């Protein structure tokens, strides 16, 4: 009597020949020559550690990826290769290298977007009985000196933007003052009133002498 759990399947061999795949539940066998290979079919997280790869402009970066995998063909998972996850791991490494080689540093920094599992990775997974239910680039690490230079460039751009806005404000203020000065020059009485208002605001007194006709 053999019990197959809900999260597994058992590849059944009889006298060295494939006899089928056992689904969850209890199974009774008679006679000799039965071999059972349990296979875990739960979803598993699959990580590829950072790979050092040069970009198209010669800057070496580190890129890692992750995926969710699940066994959908227990026979292929057991028979195709001794290390099915290693087989897929190698396919992901190859994809990372090919992808990064085709991008320059700015494109890599902007982000490597993956809308769906790359064909070559999906094909490798299918060959070993795996289905990839989620795939993406996890981390992109650039050299420290390049990162610092990029941060300095961003800071410089921000400072230049602030300085430009300040300069525009100063020009606007000067234009307003020039216009005000022209108005006061053309209207002396208005200038006197303005002077009196300013003095009164600061607690002073202004004596305006008017010429005797």
Protein architecture, described:
By secondary structure, the protein is an alpha+beta fold. The protein has three domains: 1-39, no CATH class; 43-142, Band 7 domain (Tetrahydropterin Synthase, Chain A, 2-Layer Sandwich); 148-201. The protein is 45% helix and 29% strand. The protein has helices at residues 74-79, 84-101, 105-110, 119-127, 144-186, 188-201, and strands spanning 2-4, 8-14, 17-22, 25-27, 34-40, 44-54, 60-71, 130-141. It has a three-stranded antiparallel sheet. Strands 6-7-8 form a three-stranded antiparallel sheet. A two-stranded antiparallel ribbon has the order 1-4. A hairpin with a 5-residue loop joins β6 and β7. The termini are far apart. The model has no long low-confidence stretch (mean pLDDT 85).
List the defining traits of the structure above.
3 domains, 3-stranded antiparallel beta sheet, Tetrahydropterin Synthase, Chain A, 213 residues
Helices and strands, in N-to-C order? EEEEEEEHHHHEHH
- Determine the number of helices (DSSP H or I, runs of at least 4 residues): 6
Structural class: alpha+beta
Q: Please write the CATH class name of the largest domain.
A: Alpha Beta
The separation of the N and C termini measures 130 Å
Q: What's the story with the biggest beta sheet?
A: 3 strands, antiparallel
Q: Please tell me how large the radius of gyration is.
A: 38 Å
Number of strands: 8
Percent range of helical residues:
40-55%
Secondary structure blueprint with pairings:
Elements: E1 2-4, E2 8-14, E3 17-22, E4 25-27, E5 34-40, E6 44-54, E7 60-71, H1 74-79, H2 84-101, H3 105-110, H4 119-127, E8 130-141, H5 144-186, H6 188-201
Antiparallel strand pairs: 1-4, 2-3, 2-5, 6-7, 7-8
Helix pairs in contact: 2-4, 5-6
């Amino acid at each position: 009597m053999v019990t197959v759990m809900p999260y597994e399947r058992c590849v059944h061999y009889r006298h060295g020949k494939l006899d089928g795949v056992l689904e969850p539940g209890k199974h009774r066998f008679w006679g000799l020559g039965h071999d059972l290979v349990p296979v875990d079919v739960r979803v598993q997280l699959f990580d590829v550690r950072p790979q050092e790869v040069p970009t198209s402009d010669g800057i070496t970066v580190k890129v890692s990826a992750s995926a969710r995998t699940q066994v959908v063909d227990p026979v292929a998972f057991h028979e195709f290769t001794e290390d099915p996850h290693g087989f897929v791991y190698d396919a992901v490494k190859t994809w990372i290298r090919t992808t990064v080689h085709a991008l320059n540093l700015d494109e890599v920094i902007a982000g490597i977007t993956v809308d769906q599992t790359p064909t070559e990775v999906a094909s490798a997974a299918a060959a070993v009985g795996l289905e990839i239910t989620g795939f993406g680039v996890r981390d992109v690490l650039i050299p420290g000196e390049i990162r610092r230079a990029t941060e300095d460039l961003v800071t410089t751009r921000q400072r230049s933007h602030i300085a430009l806005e300040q300069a525009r404000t100063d020009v606007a203020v000067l234009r307003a003052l020039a216009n005000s000065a022209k108005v006061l020059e053309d209207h002396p009485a208005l200038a006197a009133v303005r002077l009196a208002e300013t003095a009164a605001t600061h607690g002073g007194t202004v004596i305006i002498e008017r010429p005797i006709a």
